[in-house]
């Protein structure tokens, strides 16, 4: 009898211990914050410089355990812009390919400069960029593939943290007709272990190709090539895999600026990719050009509870002045095989479970610093448009907004001095050459995958205006309640705010109203709508 009681008690204790240990394990499966629109640091506070690269999972050379390795390029101009974001830089001086490692995809530590300018003979300002790393099992080596002037450079190492040594340089002319690739990235299929280079035609970039990476004549190189797209010019070519399907993604030809993000999908890595030769815009990306970024690379987190694809956009702000931060990472959602872009300023990721959530300090305003538009708006040049992205303009009185030369300009080119106070090259401009009444507004509501929670919010903005206004205000409207801030005597950039805004029915309208005399102007920048604690 005693043995039965003992055995029963032992099983109970064992059951409780299992629950306890499971609880402990769960506490270590933490969510960590990813903050866009900012410069990123390592976990010990050092600047992260990693542009145009990718994340890959390799074994740690010391422990043998799988770890995330993030490779990208460090440009001298990235340092300069971070120190003083009021200046753009016309060149791109390559310093090194950097390598950072992490176990949770959020907290990174610097490993090494794995390919240096010295290794390449100090090429000065010649272009090096758009790179990735693959492990090639046949050689038990890692290969780094990077655009190198007008060709493609291969560098090898026996360790994921380098140092990578130059192997050879490949001209693509015999394959695709140009010596160089257009933008390129490396994609590794974790199900097969095979890696591929995805790239575009070097001129016009109207064709996208795929090549497997492997060994030929005892050299790690590209084994073959196949055209998988022909159509409009595309750059920022990259790939990801989700639920067994392959996706090719790319951006528009907007140089250093953010643009729409496009995709194709296939059941097979070699295609066909559908809709054939007709890339589709990611739903959710059009209101702010994929959070003011270009397609850079993707990483698919296969967690214990959820599979999450992270869109890792490049923001080339050091060359374009289009905001703060170089890395804009946003989670994707899926409606069947259709990916949805969730444009978030701040969100949390649990790498162990694969779950993500919107952070409490997320700014829900799209194109909040008016940097998505890369020139004066309205614009008759690519992209042709008569509205500021993400915002609507209502002309109650005054000149109609059009492509005509008499139309008011909807955005303002910030001076260098202004950019020491406000973010980026552009701000909202409310002005006209005749007396005018204008409303500029944005309607914010829940998306299919991100809820705008009911609760208390604060609206802030930076404003600057001239004399000549009968009425000038910032407002918020939700449910049946209206909130407003009368803007007066902000002759230099000042921050204004409305607190305790009650959002109901999961939607709100925010905006600015200007009733001014001819040539009066009001500038607005850095708008924020954040939930109050």
From TrEMBL:
<dbReference type="InterPro" id="IPR023296">
    <property type="entry name" value="Glyco_hydro_beta-prop_sf"/>
</dbReference>
<dbReference type="InterPro" id="IPR006710">
    <property type="entry name" value="Glyco_hydro_43"/>
</dbReference>
<keyword id="KW-0378">Hydrolase</keyword>
<comment type="similarity">
    <text>Belongs to the glycosyl hydrolase 43 family.</text>
</comment>
<protein>
    <submittedName>
        <fullName>Family 43 glycosylhydrolase</fullName>
    </submittedName>
</protein>
<keyword id="KW-0326">Glycosidase</keyword>
<dbReference type="Pfam" id="PF04616">
    <property type="entry name" value="Glyco_hydro_43"/>
</dbReference>
């Amino acid at each position: 009898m005693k043995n039965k009681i003992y055995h029963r008690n032992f099983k109970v204790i064992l059951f409780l211990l299992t629950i306890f240990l499971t609880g402990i394990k769960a506490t270590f499966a933490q969510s960590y914050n990813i903050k866009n629109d900012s410069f990123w640091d390592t976990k010990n506070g050092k600047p992260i410089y990693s542009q145009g690269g990718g994340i890959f999972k390799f074994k740690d050379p010391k422990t043998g355990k799988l770890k995330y390795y993030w490779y990208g390029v460090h440009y001298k101009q990235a340092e300069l812009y971070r120190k003083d974001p009021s200046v753009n830089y016309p060149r791109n001086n390559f310093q090194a390919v950097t390598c950072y490692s992490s176990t949770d995809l959020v907290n990174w530590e610097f490993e090494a400069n794995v390919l240096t300018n010295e290794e390449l003979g100090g090429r000065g300002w010649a272009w090096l960029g758009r790179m990735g790393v693959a492990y090639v099992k046949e050689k038990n080596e890692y290969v780094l593939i990077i655009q190198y002037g007008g060709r493609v450079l291969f560098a090898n190492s026996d360790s994921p943290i380098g140092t990578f040594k130059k192997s050879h340089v490949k001209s693509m002319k015999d394959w695709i007709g140009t010596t160089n690739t257009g933008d390129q990235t490396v994609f590794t299929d974790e199900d097969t272990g095979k890696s591929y280079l995805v790239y575009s035609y070097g001129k016009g970039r109207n064709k996208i190709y795929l090549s497997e990476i492997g060994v030929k004549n005892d050299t790690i190189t590209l084994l073959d090539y196949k055209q998988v797209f022909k159509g409009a010019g595309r750059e920022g070519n990259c790939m990801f895999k989700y639920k067994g399907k392959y996706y090719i993604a790319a951006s528009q030809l907007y140089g250093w600026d953010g643009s729409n993000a496009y995709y194709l999908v296939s059941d097979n890595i070699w295609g066909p990719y559908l809709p054939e030769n007709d890339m589709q815009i990611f739903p959710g990306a059009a209101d702010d050009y994929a959070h003011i970024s270009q397609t850079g690379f993707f990483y698919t987190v296969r967690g214990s509870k959820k599979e999450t694809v992270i869109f890792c956009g490049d923001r080339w702000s050091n060359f374009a002045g289009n905001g703060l931060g170089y890395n804009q990472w946003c989670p994707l959602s899926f409606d069947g095989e259709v990916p949805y872009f969730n444009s978030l300023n701040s969100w949390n990721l649990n790498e162990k479970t694969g779950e993500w959530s919107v952070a409490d300090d997320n700014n829900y305003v799209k194109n909040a610093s008016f940097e998505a538009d890369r020139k004066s708006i309205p614009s008759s040049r690519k992209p042709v448009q008569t509205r500021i992205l993400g915002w609507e303009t209502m002309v109650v009185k005054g000149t109609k907004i059009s492509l005509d030369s008499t139309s008011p300009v909807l955005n303002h080119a910030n001076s260098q001095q202004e950019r020491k106070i406000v973010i980026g090259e552009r701000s909202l401009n409310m002005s006209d050459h005749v007396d005018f009444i204008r409303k500029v507004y944005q309607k914010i509501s829940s998306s299919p995958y991100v809820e705008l929670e009911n609760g208390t919010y604060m609206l802030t903005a930076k404003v600057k205006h001239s004399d000549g206004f009968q009425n000038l205000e910032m407002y918020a409207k939700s449910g049946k309640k209206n909130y407003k801030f009368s803007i007066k005597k902000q002759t230099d950039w000042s921050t204004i705010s409305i607190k305790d805004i009650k959002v109901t029915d999961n939607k709100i309208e925010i905006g600015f109203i200007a009733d001014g005399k001819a040539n009066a102007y009001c500038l607005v920048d850095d708008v924020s709508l954040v939930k109050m604690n």
